[in-house]
Amino acid sequence: DQQVKQNSPSLSVQEGRISILNCDYTNSMFDYFLWYKKYPAEGPTFLISISSIKDKNEDGRFTVFLNKSAKHLSLHIVPSQPGDSAVYFCAARVRGSARQLTFGSGTQLTVLP
Amino acid sequence: SAVISQKPSRDICQRGTSLTIQCQVDSQVTMMFWYRQQPGQSLTLIATANQGSEATYESGFVIDKFPISRPNLTFSTLTVSNMSPEDSSIYLCSVEDDRNYGYTFGSGTRLTVV
Questions:
Q1: How confident is the model at residue A1 (pLDDT cuts 50, 70, 90)?
Q2: H/E element holding A20?
Q3: pLDDT tens, position by position, A95-113
Q4: Which of A59, A76, A89, B88 has the most CB within a 10 Å radius?
């Protein structure tokens, strides 16, 4: 049972446009969500996070939106740059629990110059 | 946040053999986590390693196949034993990130079993 789902395995966007990566979850106990970026031959690196008490968190070009009623979050990248091309993983956890992260299957973002 | 050195970065191994992956952290950490990413799949937690106690394995992973050592608060190893082609994956170690409620990851070990 996949508790965190990224239904789009890939996304292509033109440089300068907006990239929107989506993530759905099923476990209502999740109260903290994170996005990671992964380049080939590297480990995932933390990008941005959001607590369930918020519906938006912004950091530079990156904004994460959380819709708790729909159990849906999205990552917006504006403007997209070729260096953003990577695999993006959505992850979720229950704070105060066993400190485990549950990951989605990832979305390969390609930003075309 | 912590810096993790993981090695080897990649290896090609014969089936039936074993490979030990090492992770060194530049600070003392209570727990270290070992993940596997199979081709096209998500990151799946293999086990949680605490210093001075047996690792805690997730469903579907057993100690005989993935023995883990945690001799001190800065180091851990994961061994992939009696390998088969199905073990071909990226293996990652990680620790909690003090800046957020997420993890810092090592650079990963890309294992190919032939």
A1: low
A2: strand A19-25
A3: 666 667 899 999 999 999 9
A4: A89
